Amino acid sequence: MRSASSAGTSLPSSVAEGSGLTLRDPPRAGKREWPSKLLKMLLFVVFIPGLVVGAIFLVQMSKYSPAGSAFFSGSLPFCRDKFNLYIEPTHWVNPESWLRGLPIHHNMSDEELLWLASMSPRRRGMPIARVPKVAFMFLTRGPLPLAPLWEKFFRGNQGLYSIYVHTLPGFKLEVPPSSVFYRRQIPSKETRWGDITMCDAERRLLANALLDYANERFILLSETCIPLYPFPFVYNHLVLSRSSFVSAFDDPGPYGRGRYNPQMEPVVSKEEWRKGSQWFEVSRQLAIYIVSDTLYYPKFKDFCRPACYVDEHYLPTMLSKELGSKLANRSITWVDWSRGGPHPAMFGKGDITESFLTKIREREDCLYNGHAGSICFLFARKFSPSTLEPLLQRASEVLGI
Ligand SMILES: *[C@@H]1O[C@H](CO)[C@@H](O)[C@H](O)[C@H]1NC(C)=O
Ligand SMILES: *[C@@H]1O[C@H](CO)[C@@H](O)[C@H](O)[C@H]1NC(C)=O
User: A GO molecular-function term, please (predicted)?
Assistant: First the structure.
């Protein structure tokens, strides 16, 4: 774009004038008219047989294509041809249905899903009233042992959140119809920690959540995560935030830049390489960027393999480079690395005391919309299933849930 327009303006004026003159040149004289006999012959030789071939082609199309009848009647199923999307045409013509979102029980492939989710309106404002929602995206192997705490957290806040659960493909989440998790499982695929399938699962969750136009913030959680504040507080903190909570930092050591592969040049240079926690929170703008990416993804897929853990580098690196000013550069999910080793601490029943929970909640050194604040984390991990009971006991008193 930039080079094209600068080339346009730097064109020497003599050339521009020269080309103007050629345009004003009168049509060259002396050109003989085509003999009308020859023209008529051409009509028979080329045009008439062309018409016949065209007609045969159309008849064949209508016979073999499943959308054949629609081809002539001009109705909608045309959009199924390439992507076979199971979308009711009424979805697009009834504005109320935009906010209901597309069904999450669909048969779309990842390619179809990401493509559809990458669409975004270019016009300012929205012609219908919309209450923004927060999408809670649970990435888990199977069950959600802390679900009762989350149920308590969500209760009474219908319309302000949506839930998406990605499990291992064979797993069926058994919850009663009264549960907030009821029928919130998305079509899932095999996912392994540390490789590209993890990013695929994250993108699958984002894409499903993007199909609901009301979703404005997107938080990735695991089955070991807990909320630290009541829902209304969490909701306001996220919806009113100008930044997305993605942790991203430059680690010069072996577990940071040491994992960089020079074959990623020129898409990613060593200086642009970032590291961060997998557990992100992003705005709709960033979510759309992530599902739309076809530039960085192949580089990370090919050149960031264990001992390079792609879920720790792909989003921090890409988002820092492309949308750095939108990032808070810190995670909104607390985790304890103080015990050392490759994995953060897992807390058990005995750890859940009032002072422990209060300590996680109270920090005093985090920027929020440009101001110093005391809230650093809205969520925490990793809590084992045994913590459920003591957490439920202290939820209302300590966490306000
Ligand atoms: C998806 O495909 C299955 C099997 O082909 C079918 O039973 C189901 O109704 C389809 N779902 C949707 C939403 O079209
Ligand atoms: C986060 O880092 C980016 C550079 O990668 C910077 O532009 C941005 O201002 C930082 N955000 C905050 C809140 O400091």
Answer: glycosyltransferase activity
3-state class (DSSP) for residue 202 = helix
Q: Whose CA is nearest to atom 4 of ligand 1?
A: 107
What Cα–Cα distance (Å) separates residue 132 from each residue in 52, 158, 267? Answer: 56, 12, 34
For atom 12 of ligand 1, the residue with the nearest CA is 106
Residues with CB under 6 A from ligand 1: 86, 105-107
pLDDT of residue 130: 87
CB distance 328 to 237 below 8 Å? no
**Could you tell me the two tokens for 328?**
């808070």
Among the bound ligands, name the one nearest to the CA of residue 87. Answer: 1
Cα 342 from Cα 231, distance rounded (Å): 32
Indicate if ligand 2 lies below 6 Å from the C-beta of 367: yes
Ligand 2 in reach of 320 Cβ (< 6 A): yes
213/282 Cα distance (integer angstroms): 15
pLDDT, position 50:
61
**Ligand 1 atom having least distance to the Cα of 103:** 13
Strand partners, 227: 379
Do 220 and 281 touch, CB atoms closer than 8 A?
yes
For the chain, list residues with pLDDT below 50.
1-31, 59, 61-83
Scored b (16 or more CB within 10 A) or e, 81-116 reads eeeebebeeeeeeeeeebbebbebebebeeebbbbb
Q: What DSSP element (H or E) covers 18?
A: helix 13-24
Question: What residues contact 146, with CB distance under 8 A and at least 6 apart?
Answer: 223, 224, 225, 226, 383, 385, 387, 388, 391
Q: What is the largest CA-CA distance in the chain?
A: 101
Give the pLDDT of residue 48. Answer: 60
Atom of ligand 2 nearest to the CA of 328: 13
Q: Where are the alpha helices (DSSP H) in 183-257?
A: 196-210, 231-239
Q: What is the pTM of this model?
A: 0.80
Phi, psi dihedral angles at 281 (to 5 degrees): -135, 125
Closest atom of ligand 1 to 105 CA is 13
With a CB cutoff of 8 Å and minimum separation 6, the contacts of 260 are 268, 270, 273, 308
Nearest-angstrom CA–CA distance, 262 and 14: 47
What residues does 283 pair with on adjacent strands? 217
